[in-house]
Amino acid sequence: FRSDRLLDLLRKMDRLQDQLRQLHAEMVDELFARIGEDWQPNRAFYLKLKRECYNRRSLLPLLDRPEWAQADPALKAEVERITACERELGMLSDRFVTTYHSERLRNHNDLLLALNSAELLRGIAIASSSLMKNLQRLTAKTPDRFGKKERKLEMAFLSYFSRSMLKLSPFSTFTKVGLALAQDGDEHIHQLSFLEGGCGSVGLVGV
Predict the structure, then answer these.
(1) CA distance 24 to 89
(2) What digits encode the pLDDT tens for the residues 177-200?
(3) Partner of 200 for a Cys bridge, out of 17, 81, 165, 194, CB 3.0 to 4.6 A?
(4) How far apart are CA 2 and CA 98, in angstroms?
(5) Would you state the pLDDT for residue 201?
């Protein structure tokens, strides 16, 4: 599973998280330095604000409290910077979930295209008859409706698919074996022929 769109969203979310950590730390220091000043009417509110910043919890619920209207204007400006980051992070999180589901479906559909490979299916039938019998279950539901059995089935199919593409095991069901000519001074190996039966990756046997 890979998605450049999701990686881009994660990078943006990480940057916002770092910014929020910095803003929370600055707010804690500011409140600690000023909490003992003549702010007695709102002291409980400021202590609550300090605790929320220290524990890195959302400040958005505090904006609905009556004490917020009487808060120090400079302090309110700093809080609003934090809550603006929180809102943006929330929107990015929602986008991440939506994008994940669409990318998950796209990756799943790309994997299902491998069901059209007769060579791959022949190899799976030889290697795991139980997997072969159940492969069509992957097309009966969308990934968001998969249960434990379907997820396990999908991972098993992906394992065989990646093995056929990447793992070089001469004379295995999933590897083409062929004859080639390599001579001193040649930059390239000259393919002569392939033996039938494999799929995906290519294994060359030296003689």
Answers:
(1) 15
(2) 667 777 777 666 665 555 444 555
(3) 165
(4) 15
(5) 46
Distance, CA of 177 to CA of 194 (rounded, Å): 6
Q: Can you read off the two tokens belonging to residue 170?
A: 């001469």
pTM for the structure as a whole? 0.68
Rounded distance between C-alpha atoms, residue 177 and residue 79, angstroms:
66
Distance CA 85, CA 104 (A): 28
Distance between CA atoms of 22 and 6, rounded to whole angstroms? 24
Q: What are phi and psi of 196, to 5 degrees?
A: -70, 155
Strand-by-strand arrangement of the 176-181 sheet = 190-194, 176-181, 202-204
Distance from C-alpha of 153 to C-alpha of 130, rounded to nearest angstrom: 10
DSSP helix/strand/coil, 176: strand
Q: What is the pLDDT of residues 108-143, one digit of tens each?
A: 999 999 888 888 888 888 888 999 999 999 999 888
- Buried-exposed string 130-158: b where 16+ CB fall within 10 A, e elsewhere: eebebbeebeeeebeebeeebeebbebbe
Closest-CA residue to 149 (of 163, 134, 139)? 134
DSSP character at residue 61: G
